[in-house]
What we know:
Chains A, B: Catalyzes the irreversible transfer of a propylamine group from the amino donor S-adenosylmethioninamine (decarboxy-AdoMet) to putrescine (1,4-diaminobutane) to yield spermidine. The structure is a homodimer. The first copy, chain A, has 8 helices and 13 strands.
Amino acid sequence: MKLNNTKWFTEIGEKTGIAFSLAIEKKLHEETTPYQHIDIYQTKTFGRLMVIDGYIMLSDRDNFLYHEMMSHIPLFTHPNPKRILIIGGGDCGTLREVLKHPQIESAVQVEIDERVTRLAEEYFPSLCDNNHDPRAYFYFEDGIRFVAQAPNNSMDIIIIDSTDPIGPAEGLFQAPFYTHCRRLLSTEGILVQQSESPLIHQPLIKSIHEEMKKAGFLETRTLTYPQCVYPSGWWSLTLAGKDLSQFRKVDAQSKTFSTHYYNADIHQAALALPEFLRCLHPE
Amino acid sequence: MKLNNTKWFTEIGEKTGIAFSLAIEKKLHEETTPYQHIDIYQTKTFGRLMVIDGYIMLSDRDNFLYHEMMSHIPLFTHPNPKRILIIGGGDCGTLREVLKHPQIESAVQVEIDERVTRLAEEYFPSLCDNNHDPRAYFYFEDGIRFVAQAPNNSMDIIIIDSTDPIGPAEGLFQAPFYTHCRRLLSTEGILVQQSESPLIHQPLIKSIHEEMKKAGFLETRTLTYPQCVYPSGWWSLTLAGKDLSQFRKVDAQSKTFSTHYYNADIHQAALALPEFLRCLHPE
């Protein structure tokens, strides 16, 4: 597409009525894998950009928001996380953040499409900084099958770092999958699911809460944060667990690693629910 | 522009490398005033849309975020606000929110372009719900001149609800104007300025703090909130005053009017600064 002689990549949301474009210098790569079509662009102002089936996955410039929130929120909520499972997350950015926590013993990443990870290594090398950490384990297979076969009580945190709930990722937003997640988790275990836009996907967020409750999780909680390249620029994650009121605040305040967005104040702030979302947590 | 047979309005940011589009049903109105060109569209999913000189001003669907934050944040920060001045704000949405506070004695709106207000009355009538409140006063003139001529100590809060700092609004982001604002404000007075995107306008936000300090304000503080239709989907406001650590929390918790985004939790949450913005408030 051309707007004013600049070349743009545009993500078109026919249903949302929103389209979002980034100015492009050139396309660096494209391929069709057994699962999806992947494009990688060099943008003018957002660094590199990965697009899957026409939907923006991440940019160099703003992926820190998503990756830091998806990892540090559950990790500083859980009292003593040691064993982390990431479903999806093929770009390795969530894995990188998880492994910044020194007490982690293992971080298992289960991505269905190995090509996402290989392309991240080539085009987003900084996201893969911790791929050679001996605590990192990679499986390239279906997350739903992996979870169905994994032993009870084998994980402290499960991070569902998935694409949108259409096509292959649909099952990742439903009670049968969440029930297996609960079985895998230890008593204090926490599940976190990327849960789309608070502004435009409220019915989905409500359904995620319901499905998590059906799966037996006692508490569920939605947190929000900005995410420029996703529809509406405002995104959310939803936690499920036994007791989500915990927060290792002192540990977050004295964390030994650097972040670009996350800090203890941001953690608490992200928990504040706008008036129009109070329905998620009837008091 | 056409993308996939849908008609879209697109705001093109050549400098930011971002373009944002909304699907359009039809154009409802356009005119060139002595100050600017105004378009009004019916969108498919965001209600009505006002565009000035090609830049999105507001949509029915998400203007509540901006208007609630620009008004309730300073009004619940000030210990006893009675006299409010709004510079710009021609769509009357900020005025509507301000007048929800029962203790307000007068709210003066100084908009340079009367046509913005007349079009808001016609196309965004709900924003103008409080235009006939006897506490509302309208002046259609240059805000900089108005402030230069206004008497000392005549206002408790000044809300600068302006367009971007290019063209006519540029002077609204500079120390000479802020100095007049300070002169107008009572001792406990608070100035609030819309201060663009935390992600893409950091140098401007830093400069606003510096200009406010030059004008003699002792404290300055930036707060952030989502705003789908503005570049990056993440926006900010910057407060200036003598003591910004105040917050009438109990009053905010027991407010007598409804809001869609703002509440006491959101107020405190909006004050949390991401790591990359900590430079604004060196400790």
